[in-house]
From TrEMBL:
Organism: Maridesulfovibrio hydrothermalis AM13 = DSM 14728
GO cellular component terms listed in the entry, alphabetical order: plasma membrane
A Pfam family annotated for this UniProt entry: HATPase_c
PANTHER family in the cross-refs: OSMOSENSING HISTIDINE PROTEIN KINASE SLN1, TWO-COMPONENT HISTIDINE PROTEIN KINASE
Gene3D superfamilies registered for this protein in UniProt: Histidine kinase-like ATPase, C-terminal domain
Organism superkingdom: Bacteria
Protein name: histidine kinase
Annotated SMART domains: HATPase_c (SM00387)
Length: 463
């Protein structure tokens, strides 16, 4: 054992793990940096001596620190922030967070029925037995917000029923709120990081479901194209033995088939390109969420018809009739303000499901039918802000979904009990819900005569 030699290579490995790939550990800090840290330690010792915090105040800081590490969720953290001053100093308080440049909402409070402050000050202020201490955001957090907060103030802590606030109390609560702010930064950044990671994971599923899986049809298209090319080769050997009229008919049929095949491949290519461009926008990755790029568009011409053409041959192969009986005038120009790429993928998912799950059904008049229908209808004053809605329907004949399935339809990974052997990931309707909600709309399901109606409602706002 004592003679065994150790390889020097063991000590030259770069540590990989919780610190990250390629993170280099330094054996020791430089003398200047070490001296700077030592100086700050002494300054802090002097500061806390000058603060002269009482035992209760020190206890409050320690309890807050411990509990802020112990509880993970933001909701629990907000409660801890307000509970510590209440339990240790019998002071009611509220914690506000910014949701816009000059708009704050209470996220933690000790009194549910007490009125909230309508105008949060951007500097520390004491008025009417209320102490307001702002929480300023650092650059890293402020840069990730979808708005620029006034004065970089991302929150505010309000303590009230404080009679004759002393300078010492003001200092202590300022230091307490500073610790609230530090923990808040840490938790918000961690949540943003987790949301970003979740978005990327979800995006991978979206690309797989909306682009990669449908692209398998390219193989089918190319096989059909190859068959037609082989038919041309066969026809070449039959030219001398065929009458001119029959030869002309065969050539026209081959030409028509090639044009049809070309259009199908080209349409699939255009939609795949649109989907990829939409899903892989740079802004999505920078923000860690889908960024909707709305613009006015013709619903039928720009969104529905391209997706119908993409799936028309698959409907025909399964003997599914296409119907326009779900409302809306077929040639009426309906203009909506939406993200064309994302809403197109909503219809692609709904039509894809229609191809797979449409079944023959007995209609109310006793006849049997097998069809998919689409259309739209106005829904006046549907949204709480008074906006009208546009209800967009995709109906499929077949047995109704069970009550249990209806509640889970738009949840991630859910597949109904009636899917049979049809391939699917349970991601399509969840994607539909995500996109529609990003547009301020809502999704739903209705059991109707002879089948199932899947719909979404978009707001028709001032845009």
């Amino acid at each position: 054992m004592g003679n065994r030699k150790k390889s020097a290579d063991v000590y030259s490995l770069e540590p990989v793990g919780m610190l990250g790939e390629g993170f280099h550990l330094s054996a020791e800090l430089g003398p200047e940096k070490l001296l700077s840290i030592q100086r700050r330690i002494h300054e802090k010792m002097d500061d806390y001596k000058d603060y002269s915090f009482s035992a209760t105040e020190k206890r409050a800081l320690m309890i807050f620190f411990d509990l802020a590490q112990e509880f993970d969720s933001l909701e629990e953290f907000f409660t801890i922030c307000t509970a510590v001053p209440k339990f240790l100093f019998d002071l009611d308080c509220r914690l506000y967070l910014a949701i816009g440049p000059d708009e704050f909402v209470p996220v933690g409070r000790t009194e549910n029925k007490a009125p909230v402050c309508s105008a949060v000050p951007l500097v520390k202020e004491y008025r009417g037995e209320h102490l307001f201490v702002p929480i300023r955001g650092n650059i890293e957090l402020v840069d990730q917000l979808p708005f620029k907060p006034a004065g970089d103030v991302i929150g505010c802590f309000e303590l009230y029923k404080i009679e004759n606030l002393s300078p010492h109390q003001s200092l202590f609560f300022e230091k307490f709120v500073n610790r609230v702010g530090f923990q808040l930064h840490s938790k918000l950044l961690r949540r943003k990081g987790q949301e970003h990671l979740d978005f990327v994971r979800n995006l991978v599923k979206d690309v797989g479901h909306n682009v990669i899986v449908p692209n398998m049809y390219f193989k089918l298209f190319y096989n059909r194209l190859r068959d037609r090319i082989e038919n041309i080769h066969k026809l070449e050997g039959e030219v001398e033995n065929k009458p001119a009229e029959q030869l002309r008919n065969d050539l026209e049929q081959l030409y028509s088939g090639l044009v049809s095949q070309f259009n199908e491949i080209h349409s699939h290519y255009e939609q795949t390109s649109l989907f990829l461009e939409t899903l892989l926008r740079r802004q999505h990755f920078e923000e860690g969420r889908y960024i909707v790029e709305k613009r006015p568009c013709n619903l039928l011409k720009k969104i529905i018809e391209p997706q119908l053409e993409r799936y028309r041959s698959r409907f025909e192969e399964r003997g599914i009739r296409l119907d326009i009986s779900m409302g809306g005038v077929p040639d009426l120009e309906v203009i909506i303000v939406a993200d064309v790429g994302l809403i197109s993928q909503v219809y692609a998912n709904l039509f894809s499901n229609a191809v797979k799950y449409t079944r023959e059904a007995t209609m109310g008049d006793g006849r049997k039918d097998k069809f998919t229908a689409y259309g739209w209808e106005d829904v006046p004053d549907h949204f709480k802000n008074g906006w009208d809605g546009l209800k967009l329907n995709v109906f499929t004949t077949g047995p109704h979904l069970s009550e249990d399935d209806r509640d889970k339809l738009f949840q991630p990974g859910f597949r109904s009990e009636n899917v049979g052997n049809e391939y699917g990931s349970g991601h399509g309707l969840f994607f539909v819900r995500q996109v529609v909600e990003l547009h301020g709309g809502e999704v739903g399901y209705e059991a109707q005569d002879g089948g199932n109606n899947f719909f979404f409602i978009l707001p028709l706002g001032d845009e």
